[in-house]
């Protein structure tokens, strides 16, 4: 039985689109943001949640915002 999409289902495409628009691999994003390639992959698969208010999640999406120039609030709106 399918569980349906995760909470991160929609915004993850925005992260993939932004990375590809910059011409970066997940490994290159990891090197630029000091996160592991596994973390970048998890975010793009919707395993790190944009609406999670933990400090770790906020820090991760701040790094993505700084790299891609897409404010977290824009990701949140597009991810709905």
Summarize the structure in words.
The protein is mostly helical. The protein has one domain: Orthogonal Bundle (434 Repressor (Amino-terminal Domain)). It contains five helices and no strands. The longest helix has 14 residues, at 55-68. The radius of gyration is 12 Å and the shape is globular. The model is unreliable at 1-9 (pLDDT under 50).
Task: List descriptors.
80 residues; mainly alpha; 434 Repressor (Amino-terminal Domain); disordered N terminus
Blueprint (SSEs and pairs):
Blueprint: H1 11-21, H2 26-33, H3 37-44, H4 55-68, H5 72-78
The number of domains is 1
Structural classification: mainly alpha
Query: Mean pLDDT, as a whole number?
Result: 80
Largest sheet: none
Query: H/E element string?
Result: HHHHH
Give the uncertain stretches in residue-range form. Answer: 1-9
Number of helices: 5
Distance between the termini: 24 Å
CATH class: Mainly Alpha
CATH topology: 434 Repressor (Amino-terminal Domain)
Share of helical residues = 55-70%
Rg on CA atoms, Å: 12 Å
* Number of β-strand runs: 0
Note the overall shape. Answer: globular
The amount of beta strand, in percent, is under 5%
| Assigned CATH superfamily | lambda repressor-like DNA-binding domains
CATH-derived architecture: Orthogonal Bundle
Short description:
The protein is mostly helical. The protein contains five helices and no strands. The protein has a single domain, classed as 434 Repressor (Amino-terminal Domain).
């Amino acid at each position: 039985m399918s569980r349906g999409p995760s909470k991160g289902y929609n915004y993850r495409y925005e992260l993939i689109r932004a990375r590809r628009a910059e011409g970066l691999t997940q490994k290159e994003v990891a090197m630029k943001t000091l996160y592991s390639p596994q973390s970048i992959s998890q975010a793009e698969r919707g395993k790190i949640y944009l609406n999670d208010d933990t400090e770790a999640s906020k820090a991760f999406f701040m790094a993505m915002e700084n790299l891609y120039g897409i404010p977290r609030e824009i990701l949140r709106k597009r991810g709905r």
